[in-house]
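User: Show me an example of a complex going from sequences to structure tokens.

Assistant: Sure. Here are the input components:
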Amino acid sequence: MTTASAYMSVEQMIPILVSTLVAATPLIYAALGELVVERSGVLNLGVEGMMLIGALAAFAVGVSSGTLLLGYLAAMAAAALLSLVFAFLTLTLQANQVATGLALTLFGIGLSAFVGRHFAGLPIHAMRPLVIPWLSELPGVGALFRLDLLVYGSIVLYLAVDWFLRRTRAGLLLRAVGESPTVAHSLGHPVIRIRYLAVMFGGATSGIAGAYLSTALTPMWVEGMSAGRGWIALALVVFATWKPLRVLLGAYLFGAVTVLQLYAQGFGLNVPSEMLSMLPYAATIVVLVIICRDPTTIRLNQPASLGKSFHPDA
Amino acid sequence: MSEWPLRLEKRPRPSALMRIAAPSIAVAAMLVTGFIAFALLGKNPLSALYIYFVAPVDSLYGIGELLLKATPLLLCALGLALGFTANVWNIGAEGQFTLGAITGGGVALFWGPALGPFALPAALLAGALGGMAWAAIPALLRTRFHTSEILVSLMLVYISQLLLAWLVRSPWRDPLGFNFPQSKVFDDNLSLPVLFAGARANIAFPIALCLAALSWFFSARTFAGYRMRVAGLAPAAAAYAGFGEKRNIWLALTLSGAMAGLAGICEVTGPIGRLQPSISPGYGFAAIIVAFVGRLHPAGIVLSSLLMSLLYLGGESVQLELQLPAAVTGLFQGTLLFYLLAADLFVGYRLRRRHRDSLAEADPSGTETVRPPA
């Protein structure tokens, strides 16, 4: 082996880094949203379904109107609307959160396939990168400053969620509701309303995550195109022990696994492509095992009321 | 918060009547929604509903198809229901189904000729064991490392599908198959005998019915089944009584995995006849709905698996007759589960009118409140 191929030069590293950032972006949106939902004590397993609805809404509106921004608004609105169904069933009608979340995913897959049949195979102009002046002209690392808006947006969202949960009164309230809805209720806080808002926030971010898939990552509409990313986002929240920074890092880790798998295929590594495609799913399991191995980690970090119904009159 | 004239009141005990009535209410609501949706799509709603729900089963062949598609749903849902009653959430039946098809199909491909008359039972057994082994992974990880069986079993769905895709693309591909990614057709001694001439339904359906009876017996008449039900209804009581949680997790996952695996091998030795990349239109996921609509009770699950099978057939029927996509099936399935979950509210709660004094109490500012009509 020559020294030239023994280590990677910066020029080779940068494209990998860029693809990692891009691959992690949908996971960051979906997982940060779900993190807020779970911190309020609600477990919404419908992320996959909401992502698909968001992907379709962004694509459909983006193609029809020619404006991606409208597509993103549509994605947020459609997915938030779907999450409202979940919120109504679980928060107002006290339905089981696990079952309702599964129903949401099944429904989202069906609805997006049904409505999306007109949009399969249509071309769309992928989002143009946001070129940051001066920084983008730097040699090598310049590529990091020519990414699309939503990649930067994911980092802004992380900062916002982190600040909201740690530094604002509303964030404190949301965490209180997640830890002990009974106490929050008896102090006069509107537990159900706070949970409604959290669920809809999670819906909107899942919608954006889906939108990123169909307008930036692979600019087209394909049935079931989220391919389990919604479930990986759910696993990321556990992996992150419900902390925003770790969601960000976890998402980059998963992005890296996805990208390395693609690069390995490109380098002609003699492993069947199906085996490499299994990597992100297998990595999810491994990562879950590592985090959950010690039950105290979970018990100390998981919102105490996660997944439990709360009825103010009962 | 604004006060509604009606309020929810917890029932002293869950209503047994509502538990049985809720699925019927949900089905009725689903039909009404379908009526409206077909009308909005510009179809004559009555004839569309006829094409969806009646036309597929107005012949003997149609009845056969109904039983054929109900079989995998029934098998998967019976196992899932055992777990759901014990609060064990196996949602990866689709993956255990796929693995059952792989292990059973492997036996069929490689030992089929050698085993002669024993080939089919051996393949079925291998399929059940394959599904069981696949479900043992989330069981092991949950009991040993406390990982969520929901996420692990689901990730294994994707892995099993990729495994099947690789097998039929590369090592198990039929060399005479014009490079299509599929195995060779199984030998004749490996196809499940059909129930009656002129239909595709096979003996897997009566086998599934027997397993439904067995699973009722297990759940209602054995101590292991009792422990699982207590764990679901009152986890604290189960812990106090010393009913080990781990045993329930292992039982629930291995039993449901075996049933899903059996469903998988029955599908490939039945209507499909070979291994190919896609072997299920989401039976393992639809079985989750089947289990809930059937009230997690074997008798109910038999009925709901027939209903869900009809939803699949209807989807194909409107695709042919009305040029609507088969994805309508998924819409009906999802809507049905939503309505059921909503209707379930009335099992534990009932609507009561607010009393006048409670209204006044709720509104100390003295502004007018809308009163319910007397």
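The lines above are the inputs; the final block is the predicted structure for all two components together. Chain A touches chain B through 51 residues (CB under 8 Å).
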